[in-house]
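Z., the sequence and structure:
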Amino acid sequence: MCFSIIAGRNTTTTGCVIMGVNDDWPGSPGQVHHQPHQVHDKADTFVSVKGIQIPQVSETYAYTYTVCDYATGTRPLSWANGMNENQVAVGMMGVYTFHNAQGEKDILEADDISILILERGKTARQSIQMIGELIDEYGYSVSSIEGGEGAVVIAISDPKEGFFLELVPGGLWVAKKVADDEIECRPNCFGTQEVDFSDHDTFMYSANLRSYAIEHNLYDGSLDDDSKPFNFSKIYSQGPIVSEAFGGTDRAVNQLRRYNGVNRLCGLEHDPSSYIYKGKPNKNLSVADIMALLGDTFEDTEYDLSQREEAGLAHNPLWMEVSHSIGQGGTVFSMVFELSDNEGVVEANKSTAGCMWIAPAASKLSCFVPFYIEVSDIPKPYQLAITGDYDLDSAWWAFQEVGQLCYRNYDAIAKDLVIPKFKQLQHEFFAEQQRINQKIATLNHDERIKLLTEFTHNSAIEAYEVALELGKYIKGKYLSNTIVEWL
């Protein structure tokens, strides 16, 4: 289960698109890796999840990405979310109620498409056009992930534009641009409503999107008459529920999360069952605002999970295995993509380079670490995380342990200790970033890479060490639900 939010460039303090993604898959450890820029021979191929080889392009771009430690077909690691050297960012959300038009010859899966975008994407728009061409040639099928055989929505952004690409098995797809003055979100369901086939700036789509729906009695309009609305989500969300936990468009887990995002950022008071995925925010949004949303658990609202009986006497809002809020206890990674484009950006808010901020746990109980796309090597602790292998040499396990320990006494441990500590560290990272922004314009390329590498590594290791110390302290002070007061 996952969630994504895209803030159009006119809604942000940076003047560029900001994208946030939660990768939620309880029990799946996460790793962070970097793939270098590569030049390929004509004989090189891209090997799909199904093991089918397709021609490789002449060169592929460098990218930093997160993955989960489970196999999907030929891939030992799955569900890649990340950003490449062109600042094309990708985040995936599984879809578990959909029309299935898959045929025997459909090859590409979600886990292929995200990698292909990272390897070949020059801009968000070009990435979608490229994927559309590949789907025309090779088809698209449900995922081979055991227990999650779904379709997918993919958030794709660059500094100027953000899109949600929604894929129906069988090669039917639509991509909708997020308006420059709006935010838009997706939980685990299709969300594109009426498609305007004449608005080619906002919509891209497969050639047979409407004709297929007519032929299979999913839509009673015609190709010659645009007077009858073509509601993509309504038409192509028809089908059995693949996953009871993650549900469909009308399940509370998706209704309340889309409501959570739009209400929190835009102040809209509406019925959560309404198909409202977007709005105009009530202020310009910062990276910190998107981070806060990814950890939101409906605090101080009628849906506040900390006030439910299940939250216990210590008011733990992360008690649900699959939560109705954006903030989840089973988050593998929270990611905020800070995209940078100096053209037209307010001078005081100019960023120096694309930065992928990564929190290796529920973001409410962890800290976002800056990983600059220009940094080619990832600190070792962030590359390590094996399913079922509790290992504090792994940053992911260290952060996850802190989150789990908070459940012993959430009010005392999370609210009084963990959240303030990580919030302080986050402020320090932001302050250091501002100092770097003021300095970096005077540096040459090598000096720039050195400075960004030092900042990325120092921040990553400091956050990891803080998580280790917090875990050690909590285990000593809150042993067996007894608080050792003198510690």
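Residues 2-388 form a domain with the Penicillin V Acylase; Chain A fold (CATH 3.60.60.10). DSSP finds ten helices and 21 strands in the chain.

Let me know what you think.
H.
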